[in-house]
Design a protein that fits this description.
The chain is an alpha+beta fold. It contains 11 helices and 10 strands. A hairpin with a 2-residue loop joins strand 7 and strand 8.
């Protein structure tokens, strides 16, 4: 019996010392497996006499039962400990994630539209709009374009296939048709800006087939070129947020204005950026002039009673100058990185008094 006592004592000690399920299974096999010590004692029963088997049989079965019970008890303890460790390491955070900041931005062109509207709105202008698809009369004839003018050719303008007996419709080449529609539907005094998309057959780093334009129109009595110059100089100062602007008005030709002038401003280049207002070089920034008497007559306005001035500017180019974008083409490429870099927060409404940009 000393051997069975020794085996039981060592087995129970080994079971208690097992630190994981793998070590415990090693002890189980060593004691209860086919070649285990307890199993070896059970095999000796066949070599005993009937009296010895009657005495040793219950004792060896009891030994086997106690060792197996100790293994199962230790297994339960180790499984519970492993489960607790897994739960401690696998924590599920039930709190809500933080709210992400909005990622959308306002396109620079839309920002400049808003800035221009704020500036001219402060001067008493209202916003007028019109269709992108125009007829020949509103886009050309009413604006004093003669037959054979290059703008009437397909190399400059996008024409639609004509309906039977009609002249072809066009994608408007400027927002000037909005001026015509306004003068025909309203009586002077008129003071509007006409923002929108326009279309010309051109495509390079500084020109796109579709671009954005803002035109302005003032029709009142006793309007002269001085009013035009003062209005546009005030606009350039407000838009580029500078205290002074050195400007010049060069004679030019537009069919719908007479006299006509392109407005140049002085600028200086600092590194890769351009500063508008003062400098040693001139830059053309917009076209302007006094509304041609023929245009007034075409709209039913007597040029002997009313005069006016008009101007037009490319919004995409103004955005390039103000915000340092070197190429027009990425404006239309839907690049999220470009939009994040050059975009604006959409809820910040520009104002002349509170700041444009």
């Amino acid at each position: 019996m000393s051997e069975t006592t020794t085996i039981e004592s060592e087995a129970l000690a080994a079971i208690e010392a097992a630190t994981d399920l793998s070590a415990l299974d090693t002890v189980r096999v060593a004691e209860l497996g086919k070649k285990g010590r307890v199993s070896g004692l059970m095999k000796t029963l066949g070599q005993m006499s009937a009296e010895e088997r009657q005495d040793m049989g219950p004792k060896l079965n009891a030994l086997k039962t106690r060792v197996a019970a100790a293994v199962e008890a230790r297994k339960t303890v180790l499984e519970d400990a492993a489960l607790e460790a897994d739960l401690a390491n696998d924590v599920l955070d039930m709190t809500l994630p933080p709210r992400r900041e909005p990622t959308g931005t306002l396109h620079p062109v839309m920002q400049v539209f808003e800035e221009i509207a704020a500036i001219f709105g402060d001067m008493g202008f209202t916003v007028a709009e019109g269709p992108d698809i125009e007829d020949d009369w509103h886009n050309f004839t009413a604006l004093n374009f003669p037959e054979g003018h290059p703008a009437r050719e397909t190399h400059d303008t996008f024409f639609f296939h004509p309906q039977q007996g009609d002249k072809p419709k066009v994608l408007r080449t400027h927002t000037s048709p909005v001026q015509i529609r306004t003068m025909m539907s309203q009586k002077p005094p008129i003071r509007i800006i006409a923002p929108g998309r326009v279309y010309r057959n051109d495509w390079d780093a500084t020109h796109t087939p579709m671009f954005h334009q803002v035109e302005g129109l003032v029709i009142e009595k006793n309007i002269h070129m001085g009013h035009l110059k003062g209005c546009l100089i005030d606009f350039v100062k407000a838009f580029f947020e500078v205290d002074s602007v050195e400007a010049r008005f060069r004679p030019h030709f537009f069919p719908f204005t007479e006299p006509s002038a392109e407005m140049d401003v002085k600028y200086t280049k600092v590194g890769e950026s351009i500063e508008i207002g003062e400098g040693d070089a001139w830059m053309e920034i917009l076209g302007s002039g006094m509304v041609h008497p023929n245009v007034l007559r075409n709209c039913g306005i007597d040029p002997d009673d009313y005069q006016g001035f008009a101007f037009g500017m490319g919004v995409d180019r103004l955005a390039m100058l103000k915000y340092g974008m070197p190429d027009l083409r990425p404006y239309f490429e839907a690049d999220a990185k470009w939009s994040r870099h050059y975009g604006f927060k959409p809820w910040l409404t520009p104002s002349v008094s509170g700041g444009l940009s």
